[in-house]
TrEMBL record:
<dbReference type="GO" id="GO:0016829">
    <property type="term" value="F:lyase activity"/>
</dbReference>
<protein>
    <submittedName>
        <fullName>O-acetylhomoserine (Thiol)-lyase</fullName>
    </submittedName>
</protein>
<dbReference type="InterPro" id="IPR015421">
    <property type="entry name" value="PyrdxlP-dep_Trfase_major"/>
</dbReference>
<feature type="modified residue" description="N6-(pyridoxal phosphate)lysine">
    <location>
        <position position="200"/>
    </location>
</feature>
<dbReference type="Pfam" id="PF01053">
    <property type="entry name" value="Cys_Met_Meta_PP"/>
</dbReference>
<keyword id="KW-0808">Transferase</keyword>
<dbReference type="InterPro" id="IPR015424">
    <property type="entry name" value="PyrdxlP-dep_Trfase"/>
</dbReference>
<dbReference type="GO" id="GO:0071269">
    <property type="term" value="P:L-homocysteine biosynthetic process"/>
</dbReference>
<dbReference type="GO" id="GO:0030170">
    <property type="term" value="F:pyridoxal phosphate binding"/>
</dbReference>
<dbReference type="InterPro" id="IPR000277">
    <property type="entry name" value="Cys/Met-Metab_PyrdxlP-dep_enz"/>
</dbReference>
<dbReference type="GO" id="GO:0019346">
    <property type="term" value="P:transsulfuration"/>
</dbReference>
<comment type="similarity">
    <text>Belongs to the trans-sulfuration enzymes family.</text>
</comment>
<dbReference type="GO" id="GO:0004124">
    <property type="term" value="F:cysteine synthase activity"/>
</dbReference>
<dbReference type="GO" id="GO:0006535">
    <property type="term" value="P:cysteine biosynthetic process from serine"/>
</dbReference>
<dbReference type="InterPro" id="IPR015422">
    <property type="entry name" value="PyrdxlP-dep_Trfase_small"/>
</dbReference>
<dbReference type="InterPro" id="IPR006235">
    <property type="entry name" value="OAc-hSer/O-AcSer_sulfhydrylase"/>
</dbReference>
<dbReference type="GO" id="GO:0003961">
    <property type="term" value="F:O-acetylhomoserine aminocarboxypropyltransferase activity"/>
</dbReference>
Length: 396
């Protein structure tokens, strides 16, 4: 059984009750009554598994967490208010002033802005390496961070090398797998923590903002650099990272998911395997149809992505004018800052998300003057190809 079918079976069997409501309940309450003072004390002592307060979690989120952990066969998950919330939670829960992150390969603009414009204010330094550069750690390096497929650079890093490097130095290896859930398995290549923006292909229809952190039992060699992790491990065992994230980030920074968003995300998650396979298939066909007509960027890597690299691609036009001409004539794509939707989406990068970045930053992030990011959807592939070819004719 392949990974798509494994997860498809798991999510459909686990999301609904065999006896009762098929669609999972939305528990919208912000607070939960404990019944009596002894029970209240037990909840706060962590001896009772009843919900404490919605900032720390709620039953609908807990359902989504169980399902999301199944994508990567992790030991558990923590959901957050957005993908940026997930990244901020991991960084703020594990790092402190004086620590350093090493970032490899291309990076989503929001993450890059967080790492360069805001983390330095808290004394956390980030150093950047290109996918093919030699990565050099320093004694302050506590985390290696990369994306499965760079958004929108479409770079793929050497995961084997980075995984081994992180293990050798007892530091965390965090992979943002937003673009390629089920297509890529970061835990198999040495990742300690996987983050997702569930806003993208996981929910799938632009219906809910959200993020997730997927974890497994922590490596014991992490305890040297992260002594607090050992304390959580002694209390929670394989769920130690859940404790770290909840007590050192969610509780105090409050990037918690709303129950209604969790519900909408579950609905999307139930069809993730079908959608991601179809969208990837469409993207591969579109790439082949266009590659001799225009400069198309699409990641290919058999070692890590035997089933393809997902639905994201780029068209590298010669100029902003060409990019605009294409976008003005293409009828199928929605012009939007999102990716991973069931619909085909497109956006000129330089004039929108990346408008405030400097030349050297744009170069690192893989954003050229004419780059149009495409997220291929589930529409009929021949129609997408025809529409793109028509729009390209207006450019040439
Ligand atoms: C969109 C995105 C994020 C941020 O997610 P939000 O849900 O928009 O906060 C992080 N990483 C990647 C790769 C993304 O594409």
């Amino acid at each position: 059984m392949n990974n798509f079918e494994r997860f498809q079976t798991f999510v459909l069997q686990q999301s609904a009750a065999k006896d009762g409501a098929i669609s999972p309940p939305i528990i919208g309450s912000a607070a939960f009554s404990y019944g009596d003072p002894k029970s209240a004390e037990a909840v706060f002592a962590g001896e009772s598994r009843k919900p404490l307060y919605a900032r720390m979690g709620n039953p609908t989120n807990a359902k989504l967490e169980t399902l999301l952990a199944g994508i990567d066969q992790g030991d558990g998950a923590v959901v957050t208010s957005s993908g940026m919330g997930a990244i901020a939670a991991v960084v703020s829960a594990f790092l402190q002033s004086g620590d350093e992150i090493v970032c490899v390969g291309g990076l989503f603009g929001g993450t890059y802005a967080f790492f360069t414009q805001n983390l330095p204010r808290f004394g956390i330094k980030v150093r950047f390496f290109k996918a093919d550069e030699e990565v050099v750690l320093s004694p302050q390096t506590k985390m290696i961070f990369c994306e499965s497929v760079g958004n929108p650079s479409l770079t793929v890093v050497n995961f084997v090398k980075l995984g081994k490097l992180a293990q050798k130095h007892g530091i965390l290896f965090v992979v943002d797998n937003t673009i390629t859930p089920l297509l890529f398995e970061p835990f198999s290549w040495g990742a300690d923590i996987i983050v997702y923006s569930t806003t993208k292909v996981i929910s799938g229809q632009s219906q809910a903002l959200g993020g997730a952190i997927i974890y497994k039992e922590p490596r014991k060699d992490l305890f040297i650099h992260f002594p607090f992790l050992q304390n959580f491990y002694e209390n929670l065992g394989k769920d130690a990272i859940m404790g770290v994230i909840k007590k050192r980030a969610l509780r105090d920074f409050g990037m918690s998911m709303q129950a209604h968003a969790a519900y909408l995300t579950i609905l999307g998650l139930e069809t993730l395997p079908l959608r991601i396979q179809k969208a990837t298939d469409n993207a591969q066909k579109l790439f082949l149809a266009l590659k001799d007509k225009v400069k198309v960027l699409y990641a290919k890597n058999e070692q890590y992505f035997p089933f393809g690299t997902g639905q994201m691609m780029g068209i590298d036009f010669k100029s902003k004018e060409d990019a605009f001409t294409f976008l003005e004539h293409a009828k199928i794509p929605f012009i939007t800052a999102n990716i991973g939707d069931s619909r085909t989406l497109a956006l000129h990068m330089r004039s929108t998300i990346y408008r405030d970045f400097k030349a050297n930053e744009l170069e690192y992030l893989g954003v050229s003057e004419g780059l149009v990011r495409i997220s291929v959807g589930l529409e009929n592939c021949a129609m997408i190809i025809e529409d793109f070819e028509n729009a390209l004719r207006k450019v040439q």
